[in-house]
Structure formats: structure tokens, C-alpha cells
Model the fold of this input.
Amino acid sequence: MLLEDQRFLHEDLERLEQGISDRTLEDPRHIRDRLNRDHQISGFLTRIQQQSKRLLDIYNDTEGLRTKEIQSISTGDPFDEFYKQLNDIKDFHRRYPNEPVENLERAYKRKAPGEGESATAEIDHMFTGEEAYGRFLDLTRLHEDYLNLPGVQSRRVTYLQYLSIFDHFTPPHCPIKRSEKTTDQYFNYVGSLAEYLEGFLRRTRPLDDLDKIFASFDQEFEKAWEAKEVLGWSTETQSVGPTAPITEGTGEGIWCADCEKEFKNDNVYRNHLTGKKHIKAAESRKANANGTTNGETARSANKSSASSTAKNLKERAIAEREWRIRKFASTMETVRSDTRVNVERRQGMTERERQQELDALFAESAEPSLRPSGAADDESDSSDDEKIYNPLKLPLAWDGKPIPYWLYKLHGLGVEFNCEICGNFVYMGRRAFDKHFNEARHIYGLKCLGITNTTLFREITNIEDALKLWDKIARDKKKEKTGGENIVQMEDAEGNVMPEKVYY
Done:
């Protein structure tokens, strides 16, 4: 019954398109609902591709079954073919009486929360509490792995610092040498980090063509690797003279490729070239570069060449993962900066406050799904009907209603205070005016005038007065300094030192 399968696939494609258009018209407020909508649309698009492939196979009819079915219907007695297919259907349902029938009308329809199925069950299991539905990164486990790497154990890198340097794999940000990167521990670390970042992108951007983006990353790496331009994995060269190429380190000094060390002074570098450590490191590096000696056998030569090939393949795999991590980090720069801000904010909170914030996040995301469908409409209608009466234009309180007039007069919010240093900004009320002297706007205005000591300029709002006071303070300091230098000290017979005025 290929014709029935063909009709079913066409209906399925139309239902999928309708389901996508219905969800595209939605505009969820919460990030959880938006991710749920995007993942549903992504699933529908994947099913459209699968069903379209099946439909094309039926139309191509490589085995000729569709042509035979059309001929059997169009030739002979049509009722015989009809009853034959009817008997086949009855026989199928007799053998499988509990076979469920798929209802395409309800399969892709937007389900209401009251129908018994959670709308965002998949999203709840995709993200951890630290990620907050894709708003932040959760690299705590990878941070612990990074601290246990050889070369990093002696350094104390906080989680906040790690968020800024996790995509840096060269000195001075990364203390791991190139020879230490070929270990299995480092290989597993960069692999886990690249896998997490790739999975985070797929979870937060389900509608983007990520496979195309990742393929472009691989193509760029292939070109850079062939040209030996991959950062941290380029060919190491060193001149014989007193200066070495500046290819590693901070770029401000002289880099010694043999010892993998940076020198700030040229004289220090020259004296380092005659040291025992440098000579030993240069000989071992030269021996590794020249390969096997003439006295080695052919078996050892083959063994060393095979090991060098395996080492090159492992270095290439590690360099590819580092390349992908850099590209992922540049793609998620906004999420990365938001994560740093969130970590700084949460460091000043107690464990109870963090738990309360997490509970509030889950309660906020679950509130729309638990609310009946008509409750939101009634609430919006009631809020539209209720108009705030504020003829005096009083400031609004935390509940969105104007504060009482007596409170407005008590705080003097009707009095305007102008500050010329802040760019003629007007502050309402004495409290706000007194508070603004310690705020960034006023301090920045003073620094623009060349005034560094801002504590002495309280209650001064005029630019001319501030400059006069600053000049007077500078003159007094200069006078005091010169006066202190001209004091003549005298010593009496008992050895007591005192100024000349006191002595006479």
C-alpha cells in the first residue's frame, strides 16, 4: 500500500509545517520556554528531512512497486482490489488488536499544560542549575581537571581567573610546556572541554546550522596546520646570535626556545647562553631534531620513526581540540562575560541566598506552565483596565504605585539640586544629592578636571570653585614641602635635635 504511505507522508509534512508556523508566532518571555520552542522546531525540521527522504524514495520507485500498485488499481475489476486491501487491513487488526493509531492532528498541536504532559520536561534535564537554562557556562568540573594538570598544580588559579584563560594554551597564561601537552591527562582535558563547549552550543542554539560552522572550523585548522601557523604548535627556530626570535611568551622580551623561558634583558640572555642548563637543553633538542645517530640499527630507526609518527598524530589531535576551543570561546564571548559577572555576584552571597535564587528561578519558569490558559488573559485584561492615577507625577514605589504625598514632602523630593561637575545633572531630593558625591558619575567628573583627591570636594558642585580649591591645595602642599626643606636643625650639648627657632 505505497499510495497510502505516500498520502500519509504528505499529510505528515503539512502537519509539521503547520506546527512550525504555530510555534514561530509565539513569543515566550522566559528563556526556558524559548529554548523549549526552539528545540521543538528543530525536532520538526529533522522529521521533515526524514519524511521527505522517504517520500522521494517512493517517487523514485527503484523497485517498481508503486507502478505495479497503480496498474493493479487501474486495470481489472476495481472492487476486487478494494476488497482485497480491506481484508488485509482486517487481518492486520485481528492479529494486532491493540495497535495504536497515530493522530497527526494532535501529534504536532501545541499541548496545553492541563493536558497532563509537561511542556518543558526535556529542557529541565538539559542544563544544570549553574547554567540557568543556557545563560551561563558551568566549567567547575573542568576547572578542577585543569588544576590537576602537570605544570599547573603549583599555581593557584581561581575559577574566575579560569573563565578568562581557559582558551589560552600558550605562555604566559598557560604554564604547560609543549612537551607536557602530549600526556593522556592533558589530551583528555582538552577533549572534555571541547566536547562541553560544542554540546553547550547545540543545546542553546538548536536552530542554527552548527554543523556548517563546525566544518568551517575544521577547514581553517587544516589550512593553518599545513602552513604551520597554529598558535603554540608552529615550528620552533632559534638564531645563533645574541637575540632570539620573539615567538613565545609575552612578546616583550627574548624567548629561548631550548629552555622555553623568556628573558627581559639582552645581557641576561647572553649570559644564559653559556650556562650548563642551556647547553644541555640545546644538545638534547638538537639530538631530537637530528633523529637517530649513525650507530643505531635499522630496527631502532624504524621504531623511532613509528613513534615520531604517532607523536605527530597525537600533537595534531591536541592542536585541533585547542583550535576548536578557541573558536567556541570566540563564538560564546557574550555568554562568557555574563558568566564572569554572575560568578562575581554569587561570590558575595551566602549558600542560603544562592539556594533561594535557584528556587526562585525554577519557580519563575514553572509558574507559566502551572497557570491555567485563561488566567493569563484575565490577568492582562485586569491590568489594562486598572489605570494608575498620578496627577502630581510622584515617584513610583516597589509595587508600581505612587508613594504618598507626605513621604514625598518629607524626603524633599520636590527640591532640585544641580551639579555642574556631573554635566548639569539634576538630583531630586537632598538624600540623592548627598549620595551622589560618592558615585561614579561625580568622581569621573572630578577626574576629568584633574582632581584625584575627591574626599575634600564634598558639597562643591561648581567647576570653577573646584579648580580654585584644587589649585589652593596644590600651592599649600608645595609651600609646606619647600618650608620643611629650609628648616635649620640645631643640636644642644645633651644631643637633642630641634629647630633653630626653638633652640634660640
User: Anything to note?
Assistant: The longest strand covers residues 416-419. The chain is about 60% helix and 5% strand.
